[in-house]
Amino acid sequence: MFRAVWNGAVLAESGHTVKVEGNHYFPPESLDRQYFTASQTTSTCPWKGQARYYHVRAGGTTNRDAAWYYPDPSPAASGIAGHVAFWHGVQVERVPVPGGEAGDGTGRGLAGRIAGRLHRLAARR
């Protein structure tokens, strides 16, 4: 289980993040949306495609463009479509789960592949 925290607020928490290039991408349903505001900022990754950003506001302070996601990534990055990653001081920390976890919570390995497939199947319905 991983959690994204900034300025005392838990922005996202999930046992099914996908780790790409050192960043944990959180499923969209794991976000606490009260902290997020759409930004006009975009950027382009040569292999993932165009990213969009969110500002994060917590404790009366705004962290501009602190989160990003790929709404329509390239086929090579389809596993992170809509998932959100963080930077600009947002801390992503591992959270111990009582009784342990199935897999390492990074989206890698068998448990991560199964969770990813289930997530994609659920999104189609």
Task: Report strand order across the widest sheet.
Answer: 5-6-7-8
Residue runs with pLDDT of under 50 for 5 or more positions: none
Mean pLDDT figure: 88
Could you say what the CATH topology is called?
Metal Binding Protein, Guanine Nucleotide Exchange Factor, Chain A
Q: Which CATH C-level class is it?
A: Mainly Beta
CATH superfamily: Domain of unknown function (DUF427)
Silhouette: globular
**What is the tally of beta strands?**
9
User: What is the count of helical runs?
Assistant: 1
The percentage helix is 10-25%
Architecture overview:
The chain has 125 residues and is mainly β. It has one domain (2-124): Domain of unknown function (DUF427) (Metal Binding Protein, Guanine Nucleotide Exchange Factor, Chain A, Beta Complex), CATH 2.170.150.40. 13% of the residues lie in helices and 42% in strands. A four-stranded antiparallel sheet has the order 5-6-7-8, with no helix packed on it. It has a three-stranded antiparallel sheet with strand order 2-1-9, with no helix packed on it. It has a two-stranded antiparallel sheet with strand order 3-4. The longest helix has 16 residues, at 109-124. It is globular. The mean pLDDT is 88.
Helix and strand arrangement:
Elements: E1 2-6, E2 9-14, E3 18-20, E4 23-25, E5 36-45, E6 49-58, E7 61-69, E8 84-86, E9 91-94, H1 109-124
Antiparallel strand pairs: 1-2, 1-9, 3-4, 5-6, 6-7, 7-8
Give a short overview:
With 125 residues, the chain is mainly β. Helix content is 13%, strand content 42%.
Main traits of this protein?
125 residues, mainly beta, 3-stranded antiparallel sheet, 9 strands
